UniProtKB/TrEMBL annotation:
Catalyzes the NADPH-dependent reduction of N-acetyl-5-glutamyl phosphate to yield N-acetyl-L-glutamate 5-semialdehyde. It comes from Natronincola peptidivorans. GO terms for cellular component: cytoplasm. The gene is argC. The keyword Chaperone does not apply. GO terms for molecular function: N-acetyl-gamma-glutamyl-phosphate reductase activity; NAD binding; NADP+ binding. Residues 3-142 form the Semialdehyde dehydrogenase NAD-binding domain. Pathway: Amino-acid biosynthesis; L-arginine biosynthesis; N(2)-acetyl-L-ornithine from L-glutamate: step 3/4. InterPro entries: AGPR (IPR050085), AGPR_AS (IPR023013), AGPR_dimerisation_dom (IPR058924), AGPR_type-1 (IPR000706), NAD(P)-bd_dom_sf (IPR036291), Semialdehyde_DH_NAD-bd (IPR000534). The lineage of its organism: Bacteria, Bacillati, Bacillota, Clostridia, Peptostreptococcales. This is N-acetyl-gamma-glutamyl-phosphate reductase. NCBIfam families: argC.
């Protein structure tokens, strides 16, 4: 058994971590940190976890409470994890940060896109980008994991292998992605106000979304040359889920079989990537509350475009589930421990 602590446990991502880890056979949850609900039973904050999580929230002291754990999960808004990450790394323990704070390798890029100063620069170079299926060996050896963003996970999993194997063009990648409202977190905001998000779909942050440099960083590594993407996220009236549709001009004349072979090579034995049959396309309900990423694609011979579709649950594969998968890799547990449950349908 390992001992884990969760900071930011009462946010949506923290709640998914708590749900998943409370059913993990190798884990004991030591604390559920919260500023706002300290001393309150966790199951009063999240009644769905009554009977599964019998623990009070606590506002932890970074100098004392980190001593008793083997791994810390940080699920705080960006800019706020750095002090805790610094402390735990200095103590020689493992940490999985679910914010954007350690994802970008260039600190100037982080500071300019996120508009905050990085207070733990020394830790950045040691951070491993936790895209589980792509970097399993690095993750297994890491002390600090920068867990990927939700949109990047849904976009990098389908694109990384194709760029690595040089079967698609790099200068015409257009991504149209749609997220459920839980992607915006739990704090009330203009984004998640019911009358404004219900029965409404909108594009936002066109050409300026903070996930753009994260996606470009990883695709550049895959392609071995710098590339830029066109990324348009949308807010849709669903609670969970991300559907990403990616358009690439098929200038290389890639065939369906070539692409299928690449996906089979990278993901054929990966439990959490489901490659769908030809003319079957991913949908968010088919991955709801699960750690799956569903992928399929079409080569449109009429327009000579490649269209790739992926679906994930933003809170699970896009955040807490992938973090648990990374913890499993770091501690040598079965990859799917704590994550075996099927999606919920309908
Ligand atoms: N939502 C998603 O789909 C995804 C989110 N992420 C990232 O995971 C992290 C957590 O996201 P999410 O759970 O959605 O966010 P939420 O806003 O739902 O939760 C964040 C929690 O952090 C705690 N907190 C502590 N200090 C502060 C502070 N100063 N300001 C605000 N909250 C604070 C709050 O709990 P309390 O007041 O009880 O301490 C709050 O509930 C973020 O970095 C996010 O970008 C990553 C991938 C997907
Ligand atoms: C719907 C919605 O608002 N989504 C959020 C996703 C951000 C997020 O989750 O942030 P990180 O993954 O980078 O931590 C957004 O677009 O800002």
């Amino acid at each position: 058994m390992i001992k884990v602590g969760i900071i930011g446990s009462t946010g949506y991502v923290g709640a998914e971590l708590t749900r998943l880890l409370s059913h993990h056979s190798e884990v004991e949850i030591m604390f559920l940190d919260s500023r706002s609900y300290a001393s309150m039973e966790y199951s009063r904050v999240y009644p769905s976890l009554r009977g599964s999580v019998e623990k009070e929230c606590t506002s932890i002291n970074l100098d004392e409470d980190l001593e008793n754990i083997d791994v810390l999960f940080c699920a705080l808004p960006h800019g706020l994890s750095q002090a805790a990450v610094k402390k735990i790394v200095e103590k020689g323990k493992k940490v999985i940060d679910l914010s954007a704070d350690f994802r970008l390798k260039d600190v100037d890029v982080y500071e300019s896109w996120y508009g905050v100063k990085h207070e733990a620069r020394d830790q950045l170079s040691g951070a491993v980008y936790g895209l589980s299926e792509i970097y399993p060996e690095e993750i297994a050896k890491a002390q600090l994991i920068a867990n990927p963003g939700c949109y990047p996970t849904s976009i990098l999993l389908p694109l990384y292998p194709l760029l690595k194997e040089d079967v698609i063009d790099t200068d015409s990648i257009i991504i149209d992605a749609k997220s459920g409202v839980s992607g915006a977190g739990r704090a009330p905001s203009d984004t998640n106000l019911y009358p404004q998000c219900n029965e409404n779909i909108k594009a936002y942050s066109i050409g300026s979304h903070r996930h753009t440099p994260e996606i470009e960083q990883e695709l550049t590594i895959a392609a071995g040359k710098e590339l830029k993407i066109q990324f348009t996220p949308h807010l849709t009236p669903m609670t969970r889920g991300i559907l990403s549709v990616i358009y690439i001009s098929n200038k290389k004349g890639t065939t369906y079989q070539q692409m299928k072979d690449v996906y089979e090579k990278y993901y054929g034995d990966q439990k959490f990537i489901r490659l769908l049959e030809e003319n079957e396309y991913p949908q968010t309900k088919a991955v709801y509350a699960s750690n799956y990423c569903d992928i399929s694609f079409k080569i449109d011979d009429r327009t000579q475009n490649i269209i790739i579709v992926s679906a994930i649950d933003n809170l699970v594969k896009g955040a807490a589930g992938q973090a648990v998968q990374n913890m499993n890799l770091m501690f040598g547990f079965n990859t799917d421990e704590g994550l075996q449950h099927a999606p919920i349908w309908p």
